[in-house]
Specification:
The protein is mainly beta. It contains no helices and 18 strands. Strands 1, 2, 3, 6, 7, 8, 9, 10, 11, 13 and 17 form an eleven-stranded mixed sheet that branches.
Length: about 230
């Protein structure tokens, strides 16, 4: 029997205006072992009792769900999304593909994302991300389906000489990414934009070709303004 266990591939995407499906997805680094969990909370039980205490009818409210995982905050690894004291703006979709991509994974169309930062001497600093699942436009809150990433590839932009202030995004995106964040998008040519940094000229590498099933890495260097 093939099971949906083992090392997962997780991608998250910020919903667009009016809950539009993401066009790009942030690739999540491999989570800390055994930290990836989907937890249901059973819906409230309602009982219609008659004299004597027996139930004449019973019904339940819908279950609620949370998905969580932890990633280590290693040197050179940026947070996949920015937060303010753990609060993350906007709503996110999540796709989780099990180690065996032919078995059912997890698709969450809509959720609220939050972050907790922890530290211990055995693991160092970790970021714990929790997704509180919200009611989608259609279907179940959590969909158990085979997750297919065909037709897409990944792009990572590594920025240097920016004084820690440089960021990047595709021309089709709204949110900026820090150096080293990797995203998934449809194959083909893309245009890369860079954030203004005082006293610096933005990198000249402004295009890339996304290849299906491959990860492309771009080195982007800020230079001193003349």
């Amino acid at each position: 029997m093939e099971l949906s266990w083992g090392k997962p591939i997780i991608k998250i995407g910020k919903l667009g205006a009016n809950g539009a499906t993401p066009t790009t997805w942030i690739d999540i680094p491999t989570p800390v072992e055994n930290s990836t969990k989907l937890t249901p909370t059973k819906g409230t039980k309602f009982e219609a009792k008659v004299e004597g205490g027996a139930n004449e009818a019973v019904k339940y409210a819908a279950n609620t769900y949370t998905l969580e995982f932890e990633i280590r905050a290693g040197k050179g690894r940026a947070k996949p999304v920015e937060d303010i004291d753990g609060v993350i703006a906007g709503e996110y979709a999540v796709k989780l593909q099990p180690e065996d991509p032919t078995v059912e994974g997890i698709i969450i169309d809509r959720s609220t994302m939050s972050e907790e930062e922890t530290f211990d001497t055995e693991n160092g600093k970790k970021w714990k991300y929790t997704f509180d699942v919200l009611k989608p436009k259609t279907g179940n809150q959590v969909k158990h389906e085979v997750v297919n990433f065909s037709g897409a590839g990944s792009l990572k932009v590594v920025i240097s000489d920016d004084g820690g202030a440089g960021m990047w995004k595709l021309s089709t995106e709204t949110d900026w990414h820090k150096s080293g964040v990797q995203i998934t998008t449809s194959k083909g040519s893309v245009t890369i934009q860079y954030k203004d940094v005082t006293g610096k000229t933005k990198p000249s590498q402004t295009s890339a070709t996304i290849k299906e099933g491959e990860a492309v890495e771009i080195a982007a260097k800020y230079t001193a303004s003349a």
